[in-house]
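Job type: complex structure
Entries:
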Amino acid sequence: MTTPDAASNYWVDSAGDAAARPPAAGRHEADVVIVGAGFTGLWTAYYLAGIRPALDIVVLEAETVGHGASGRNGGWVIGNLAGLERLVGDMDAPARRAICAQLADNVDQIGRVTAREAIAADFHKGGTLDAAARYPQQVAIQKAHRAALIELGHAPEDCLWLDGPALAERAVFRRGYGALFFRQTATVHPMKLVQGLARAAERRGVTIHEHSRVRYLAPHHVITDVGAQFGARHIVQATEGYSGELAGLGHRVLSVRSLVIATEPLSEAVWARVGLAGRPTFCDASRMINYGHRSRDGRLVFGARGAYPLGGAPKQDHAISSADIELRRRLLLDLFPGLPADLAVTHGWGGSLGLSRRFRPHAILDSKTGLATAGGYAGEGVAASHLMGRTTAELIAGQDTPRTRAPWAHRDVAIDALLRRWEPEPLRWLAAQTISASYATEESLLRRGYDNALARAVMRANDRFAAIIE
Ligand SMILES: Cc1cc2nc3c(=O)[nH]c(=O)nc-3n(C[C@H](O)[C@H](O)[C@H](O)COP(=O)(O)OP(=O)(O)OC[C@H]3O[C@@H](n4cnc5c(N)ncnc54)[C@H](O)[C@@H]3O)c2cc1C
């Protein structure tokens, strides 16, 4: 059952009233102007104001704090990075392990800061059931995934393999053949986090203007849609999947749409059948991506099946159709046999995430022009934006830290030189359609029990696609 008015964002509904901030007006000089009040922009502001309290830091947000992906994501805080193998590929084993230790600590640091700043963002570190195998063929793939994580530098004790019965003790999936339990993952209420972070940055002296869309961005100078102007030594572009045409970043960080639903709070009897008692996040091994978690108030928050829209323009209107909601409700019912057939969905919403052509996250400072940017999280940006925002702050402050020495940090590099442009349309759209169709074919063959040469060939092809885009 889907309620007819379900198309709304659960995180917005449950975050409480947000502070309203006035738009920018007039002409100003600042030290640092940050464009975008999502996690990246706000973590940059928060850390920079902590390191250099005397700096005049201004954040300009086109809509309201958390309007972008930061206020509408699945709430996973992942102790890993999308594209990590590309970042650490050339490093030796001890260096890779040091990077993975940073990624684990990055999750804990978000917990520490939320506690220190009294941000009630429901931070909970329950680990993740990463890619439950629901067909026998997926077991070998997921075991190989576990081995690859350890080879990349994650601690073996953080990457436990659970066979079918051990998995069932944590979550009762329909056809749960096994899963990796990765310990370094937490959950948050993302809207409470982004709003609390904005207030924490303001307490450190940062100024935030809402309804202040930057239309012109050049070294040391930005102009908003109503003509407010700022001169600054550094301009940080933190617009990720909402970059659009601004200074050409939209051609370099692509906008991909992703949709999420939230159910009504489930009864203890239902939770007893579903599991997830420790509130780990979960996903299955489908390449179509089905992921979720049990919220603090006992709902399932569940996302599935993003899409790349032709042209890649970010959507500002995030309402989704009842058909979109119903598809995800059915996927959820298929995943957990313990859910009631009349499971009610109370919320459904969408958002845009950013994918860089290098398929890895970045924090870049071009010291010559004073321009900086961070992003490219490929849908895994809640923890990554904290790391990249902190790194960007340290780069601007001229610090030498484990983060500024890490492979995601780039000092003295022109943004255009590092971030390649995506191929022109319709090539991008056609590639996205081809990959989606191939993933759907694999899903359909597995579901129908095929274990033949065709199924294996499709899975091999999809392994190659995944190696390119993940
Ligand atoms: C549906 C969905 C589910 C997701 N689930 C997860 C998850 O569970 N775990 C995870 O790790 N990641 C997830 N992600 C990704 C994660 O949310 C993002 O990577 C992260 O929030 C990016 O933060 P950001 O600050 O870089 O960008 P955003 O939060 O998108 O912020 C960019 C901001 O820039 C503003 N802006 C844009 N243009 C201008 C302009 N010209 N002038 C002024 N302001 C401008 C926008 O309005 C926006 O507020 C998900 C994303 C989506 C969409």
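Summary: Residues 427-469 form one domain. The chain has 13 helices and 19 strands.
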